[in-house]
């Protein structure tokens, strides 16, 4: 289902096939995915991945929106608008780590169930996505990417907080500086204030003072876990 939705998004957009932007996204995303396969880290952040298959695929889409997404199964898209705002690989890793976390934590399953779209999604997974009406496809793909919020604000905040928590550990174990996650989300808030409206990534990923406060608590924990792992104090 994720693959079908991903293909539809790529067909409707402008995919950047080569260049430094593509190399950057694939380099950073590849390291994040590699970190997600570290067994002690999976245990540390309570990931349950046994029996799940991820066909990790990374693409850049030319669009001014400041956004990224990860569909079920590991299909990642990053818009060039976000790449112009992320100041370095570390900040990009914060975003990709967050998006990958949604897939690893099976958040789409939860969203589909709560939105009463599970049966429609199962039909789409069996090849019926193209037979849905344009509006139905838009809603389903929106829920899959997290671009449409149909749940309660409290439920959305819980998923976003969990993705932030997992993401900061992923980026740290991938070798990136987790302090840049705080810098990135503060930068997004500043852009929102300057423009008088939130960047796309904030409209689909609610951000507030609590997010920054949580990241400031989790960053030292992620750093400590990485040091312990590097020093052999955690079984590999």
Can you walk through the features of this model?
With 236 residues, the chain is α+β, with helices and mostly antiparallel strands. It has one domain (2-230). It has helices at 2-12, 20-36, 39-44, 80-85, 89-104, 107-114, 118-128, 134-145, 153-173, 179-195, 200-204, 209-230, and strands spanning 15-16, 57-61, 68-71, 75-79. The radius of gyration is 17 Å and the shape is globular. The mean pLDDT is 82.
Assign the structural class, choosing from mainly alpha, mainly beta, alpha/beta, alpha+beta, or little secondary structure: alpha+beta
The total beta strand count reads 4
Radius of gyration: 17 Å
List the total number of helices.
12
- In what order do the strands lie side by side in the largest sheet? 1-2-4-3
How many strands, what sense, and barrel or not for the largest sheet? 4 strands, mixed
Instruction: Give helix % range.
Output: 55-70%
Order of helices and strands: HEHHEEEHHHHHHHHH
Give the low-pLDDT segments.
Answer: none
**Beta-strand percentage?**
5-15%
The number of domains is: 1
Identify the overall geometry: globular
**C-alpha end-to-end distance:** 34 Å
Mean pLDDT: 82
């Amino acid at each position: 289902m994720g693959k079908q939705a991903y293909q539809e998004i790529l067909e409707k957009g402008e995919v950047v096939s080569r260049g430094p932007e593509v190399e950057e996204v694939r380099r950073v995303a590849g390291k994040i995915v590699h970190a997600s396969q570290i067994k002690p880290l999976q245990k540390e952040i309570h990931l349950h991945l046994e029996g799940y298959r991820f066909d990790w695929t990374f693409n850049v889409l030319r669009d001014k929106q400041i956004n990224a997404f990860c569909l079920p199964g590991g299909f990642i898209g990053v818009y060039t608008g976000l790449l112009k705002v992320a100041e370095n690989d570390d900040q990009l890793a914060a975003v990709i780590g967050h998006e990958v976390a949604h897939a690893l934590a099976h958040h789409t399953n939860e969203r589909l169930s709560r939105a009463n779209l599970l049966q429609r999604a199962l039909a789409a997974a069996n090849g019926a996505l193209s037979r849905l009406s344009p509006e139905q496809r838009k809603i389903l793909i929106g829920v899959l990417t997290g671009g449409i919020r149909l749940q309660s604000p409290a439920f959305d905040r819980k998923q976003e907080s969990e993705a932030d928590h997992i993401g900061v550990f992923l980026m740290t174990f991938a070798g990136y500086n987790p302090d840049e996650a705080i810098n990135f989300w503060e930068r997004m808030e500043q852009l929102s204030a300057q423009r008088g409206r939130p960047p796309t990534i904030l409209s689909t990923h609610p951000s507030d003072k609590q997010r920054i406060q949580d990241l400031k608590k989790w960053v030292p924990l992620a750093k400590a876990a990485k040091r312990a792992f590097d020093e052999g104090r955690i079984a590999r």
